[in-house]
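## retry 2 of 3
previous attempt timed out at serialization; input unchanged, resubmitting
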Amino acid sequence: MEGDKIRFHGLKGLLSLAAAVSVALLFPAPLFAQERSVARQEEVPAQLRLRKTPLKTRELQGKTVEGEERVISRGDSLWRILIEEKGLSEKRFSRYLVIIGSLNPHLKKPNILQVGQTVFIPIRPDEILGIELPTGKGEAKVYKIKQGDYLYKLLREQLGTQDKKEIRGAFDQVKELNPAKKNWNILLIGESILFPGRGIAPGIPRVESAQAAKPMEAIGLDYGRKLPARENLKLLEQVMASLGNEMDRRGEEVVPLREGTIRIDRDSYPVIRNPKADQKVILDTEGKIPSSLRSKLEAPGFSTPVVSIKKGESLHDAVGNLLSRLGYQSLPSDRPVEIRDGGVGLQVKGEWMVAPPEESGAKQEILIINLTDLSGKTPDYLRDYLSVKGMNLKEILLPSLPLPPLPVSAGSKGAPAENPIENWPRDKGALIDSLLKSYGIAFSSAQQLSVPLREGIRLDATADRFFEFGGKKTALLFRSIGEEAKKALQEREGIRVVELELQSLSARDLIARLLEILGEKTAYREHRFPANEGAARDKMLLSISGFLLANRSLLLTDREVPKGMQRFFADRGLRVVYFQ
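## retry succeeded, writing output
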């Protein structure tokens, strides 16, 4: 038969092989605040007041980006603006920071905003990331607000609603599809609103959030288990090459047997070699080599292992079999390898995790291989850190499922920012001052307080720290003045008195008390941060204990961060403060 590629000298038989987002439109009242008939609403549109909001544009990667210029006020942070106010995805916060940095080159650190700064905030950052919204009949569709639009008109025109029951049900769906929009009394000209497609009426399952729609299958740690090996031989070859193995497809492999010499065409039956261990494997991509011949090739003295790929066998299993026959020792891929360095832990998972064949005098290391896309690619500095710790991370980029590359902000390449980890003083009084300053709170020391306790009796006391925050006056005293005096100051002067026995409080307990006073609902605990995004978020996790103030992009910790890991926090727009 033509195409057979194995020839025997002294043997009979032939084998064969058969080779994938300004003008705002203000409504005088909410949609359903007034009881008006449907007919009247159809005849007389709601009266509008036009409020001009300056719409700005900037260029990014050759495209025009619309947005607003925001003057930073006290308490503002990008987390508060993007996540809390605009309702954007928490999972994409680090990517939004990169965009903000690129659009605002004057910001050296986008995660640290100064009061009075002007920052350009894009209206539709997800569009910049290439996250498309689904369109089409029966699916969610995008509508851009034009002058003269009002909500009832849009519900009627876009969804064909008529009576009040239909309008209310349709409005509920529109709100669910647009979680980022908080005030439905205001529509902005040019604003993109997601509407259900016609035919999606109350009672019919709704389309989930537009941001949940994905144009492609997510890539996870088990992606290799979903890919069939036979259809992805090129990817298999890349995995093997990343470990230093060679796949030879040229010429013939000559194997002497007792019965004679067998010549195997490597183009049909590739030979994979591990030059360091001087081992080789014949790859039978379709399982065509009969068991009788296979046993001869693998017999002692000849030892030429054959690895067959069965129909439907996954890439994960096929590579695993090849590595084991080439002398690699596999580690469980469902269990992470963990490194503890200082106060930081790093957990790493891989599609394949193996120890290579031992070499005389060579330092033993763990090889970790992952299939990934651009969003899941591990930063180079983390790969270097792992290498120092004896783990060699290899990532195979899947070219068929790429995501658009992110714009690079100034300072994101090259050396990390200087002193990315701040240090607060050990002295507890100075520690209190540092925390208050980080909140932009103006305070005074040795503030004199005087309050009458009863007729003819007055207490004069000194507040060690006195400040006003959130409309409340607070006095911190580093000693006790008694319940009667505290009650008098609260009821007669409106001053909240907090007694802090500094000698008996650890720095951690002191910070916890201060954060409670400032209204922060947080506790000291372990926090985990993914090094990657998307479905590959769990392949590398960094853990550290401390107080995380997400709305301020601030982490307070008493755990030392190794130098090789400090850039990790800076790249995610997280300000890290070390206290003792």
